[in-house]
Amino acid sequence: MSYKIVTTDENIEYEQIKDLLHYYGLTDLPTEKIELAFQNSLYKVFVLDEENKVIGCGRAISDGVSHAEIYNIALKEKYHKQGIGRKIMETLVKLAHGQIITLYTAPWSMDWYVKLGFRPLNTGLVKFRGHEIEWMEEHGFVGEGRENNS
């Protein structure tokens, strides 16, 4: 099985990206919004098979100097456990060289990112869109809000 990694979205069919991200529940955005998100990201990675079909992707938003945040890491299931997901991450980390890199992920994939050198944060906070909060709580992404003790 051969594949290639590209870091430009030239000739990328974003409908394939949408299908991949929707399959894993990484977003509910339509194709046009996903395309805009990738185009507005400083770093992007796509993995293509022999027929130039998208089998994996990832992106990072960044100021290009000190901070980058990784999003939308996805790889078709039949390509798991072949080092391709690691290659997506290594490529993004290399592109963001010298920057603080953050990401948030599903609770069940935390260990994988730790193996890649990421460390859990004790002080991270997030504000989701209203319709996402309940799902994120039910699936262990976030805990209940803290009480205001002031």
Write the layout of secondary structure elements.
Blueprint: E1 4-6, H1 14-23, H2 31-39, E2 43-48, E3 54-62, E4 67-75, H3 84-95, E5 100-103, H4 110-115, H5 133-138
Parallel strand pairs: 4-5
Antiparallel strand pairs: 1-2, 2-3, 3-4
Helix pairs in contact: 1-2
What does this structure look like?
The longest helix is centred in the middle third of the chain and has 12 residues, at 84-95. This protein is of the alpha+beta class and 150 residues long. The model has no long low-confidence stretch (mean pLDDT 92). It contains five helices and five strands; from the N terminus they run E-H-H-E-E-E-H-E-H-H. The chain has a domain at 4-103: Aminopeptidase (3-Layer(aba) Sandwich), CATH 3.40.630.30. Strands 1-2-3-4-5 form a five-stranded mixed β-sheet. Keywords: Acyltransferase, Transferase. GO terms for molecular function: N-acetyltransferase activity. Residues 1-140 form the N-acetyltransferase domain.
Question: What keywords describe this structure?
Answer:
150 residues, alpha+beta, Aminopeptidase, 5-stranded mixed β-sheet, 5 strands, 29% helix, Acetyltransferase (GNAT) domain-containing protein, GNAT_dom, NSI-like, Acyl_CoA_acyltransferase
Q: What would you call the structural class?
A: alpha+beta
Radius of gyration over all CA atoms, rounded:
16 Å
Number of helices: 5
Q: Helical percent range?
A: 25-40%
Biggest sheet, open or closed, and with what strands and sense? Answer: 5 strands, mixed
CATH A-level architecture of the domain at 4-103: 3-Layer(aba) Sandwich
Instruction: Give the mean pLDDT.
Output: 92
Kindly report how far apart the N and C termini lie: 59 Å
**Oligomerization status of the protein chains:** single chain
Order of helices and strands: EHHEEEHEHH
